[in-house]
Design a protein that fits this description.
Length: 159
Amino acid sequence: MKGSISAVFVFYCLILVAILFLIGHRGDNGAGTVSIKEYLKWNMNLIPFKTIIGYTRFFINGSINESIIIENLLGNVLLFFPMGILLPCIFENLRRFNRFAVAMLISLVSVEILQLLTRSGICDIDDIILNFIGAVSAFGIWRLTVIQKLLSKIYVLNR
């Protein structure tokens, strides 16, 4: 059964690559025609909560469609949610929170840097925060005793 979880993980990673690097480049603001300095100006945010607060303000003012907020904020939370279940199921060393959290942070920072370097997305600290919240939330659910027992019964975990 661990092999099937690994197959799901590989499939999920392929979907992630497509979403993060191939489908609908969010950072396609003249990526091939502007200088790197100009590109960074419009496609990088290193100020925590700037994007989240911005979306909140736009929503309060009624100047943004709520589906855009849901897609960007909730979508970022849900995008890495499966990691919180799949990683500890597959990798025994990631069943401890500290190791899982460090692995996720390294992965998320790497994704944002790759999006910036490939000019295929926006490098945003808020994406890291929201993705991390999703992964950690799922990890918390995975750690629940009832979930552990259920997964053990279907032979997903090697305990």
